[in-house]
Design goal:
Layout: E1 4-12, E2 17-22, E3 28-37, E4 45-51, E5 54-57, E6 63-64, E7 68-78, E8 84-90, E9 97-107
Antiparallel strand pairs: 1-9, 2-8, 3-7, 3-9, 4-5, 4-6, 4-8
């Protein structure tokens, strides 16, 4: 089995929020989460990542940045039946923003 990339990309209008859910194709380990905030977000766009309704990135609150891509390393077991969710809140009252988050899952050893 190969690594799996689950890609979340969402355009949010001013003050809009979204919860995007996906399920992995196979059992494995979440090894990395990468989130990109484009220039202009000015820490007004908040992101959180969940597994089965349990927030794991960050443990509390939200991440909010500007003009950066951040990678977070993990070693979390994930089942094919688990729901992975990215929650995005656009707190900017004037501008839309496009946020991209990617979850890298490695298969379990055979």
């Amino acid at each position: 089995m190969e690594r799996e990339l689950i890609n979340y990309r969402q355009i949010l209008l001013p003050t809009q929020s979204a919860k995007i859910t996906e399920q992995p194709e196979n059992n494995g380990k979440i090894k990395q989460v990468e989130i990109h905030w484009p220039d202009g977000c000015n820490s007004l766009v908040q992101v959180a990542v969940y597994q089965q309704s349990i927030r794991f990135l960050p443990r509390e609150g939200y991440l909010a940045m500007n003009d950066t891509t951040r990678m977070y390393e993990f070693n979390r077991t994930v089942k094919q039946t688990d729901e992975l969710m990215v929650e995005i809140l656009n707190g900017d009252g004037a501008w839309p923003h496009t946020i991209t988050a990617t979850i890298l899952i490695e298969p379990l050893g055979e």
